[in-house]
């Protein structure tokens, strides 16, 4: 029980840290940018580390990363790779298997990573501004509401 109480206290502390509307907006936006990046598997860790480094709310940053939850991950990766290819090469990636068959695996991975990185900055930037702004408005409204005491 002591461990659960200590864990709950830590989560409550995290939820209250750096919660001005602007800081929450930046934290969510940063999380969204990371969520649109090709750094699969380490996005949450990066979000927490960067939130701590820049004194942002880590919970808000992790929530932003959730833009790439498993059902949406293939869509995010596809869109970012296509947009990155369009920006870097001036054309969309081929949608047929034949377009990838004669390309060495190492080249394909390197090319797609760069495509997803560039596309992720563009897609993530748009969604970071939109979702970060929405978060700032929501936090601002929540902070203006009087605190209701439960049971009183």
Give the key terms:
152 residues, mainly alpha, elongated
At a glance:
This protein is mostly helical and 152 residues long. The model has no long low-confidence stretch (mean pLDDT 87).
Write down how many β-strands occur, each being a DSSP E stretch of 2 or more residues.
0
For the terminal residues, how far apart are their CA atoms?
Answer: 27 Å
Shape: elongated
SSE ordering = HHHHHHH
Q: Which residue ranges are poorly predicted, with pLDDT under 50 across at least 5 consecutive positions?
A: none
Mean pLDDT: 87
How much strand? under 5%
Integer count of domains = 1
Rg calc: 19 Å
Characterize the structure shown.
With 152 residues, the chain is mainly α. It has one domain. It is 72% helix and 0% strand. It has 7 helices and no strands. It has helices spanning 2-16, 21-35, 43-53, 58-65, 73-89, 98-101, 105-144. α2 runs antiparallel to α3, α2 (21-35) runs parallel beside α4 (58-65) and α5 crosses α7 (105-144). It is elongated.
Write the layout of secondary structure elements.
Blueprint: H1 2-16, H2 21-35, H3 43-53, H4 58-65, H5 73-89, H6 98-101, H7 105-144
Helix pairs in contact: 2-3, 2-4, 2-7, 3-4, 5-7
């Amino acid at each position: 029980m002591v461990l659960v109480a200590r864990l709950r206290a830590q989560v409550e502390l995290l939820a209250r840290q750096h919660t001005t509307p602007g800081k929450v907006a930046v934290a969510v936006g940063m999380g969204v940018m990371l969520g649109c990046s090709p750094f699969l598997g380490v996005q949450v860790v990066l979000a927490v580390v960067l939130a701590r480094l820049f004194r942002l709310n880590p919970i808000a940053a992790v929530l932003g990363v959730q833009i790439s939850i498993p059902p949406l991950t293939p869509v995010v990766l596809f869109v970012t790779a296509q947009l990155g290819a369009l920006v870097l090469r001036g054309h969309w990636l081929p949608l047929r298997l034949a377009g990838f068959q004669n390309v060495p695996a190492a080249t394909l991975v390197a090319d797609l990573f760069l495509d997803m990185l560039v596309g992720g900055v563009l897609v993530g930037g748009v969604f970071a501004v939109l979702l970060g702004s929405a978060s700032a408005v929501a936090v601002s409204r929540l902070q203006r509401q009087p605190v209701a005491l439960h049971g009183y």
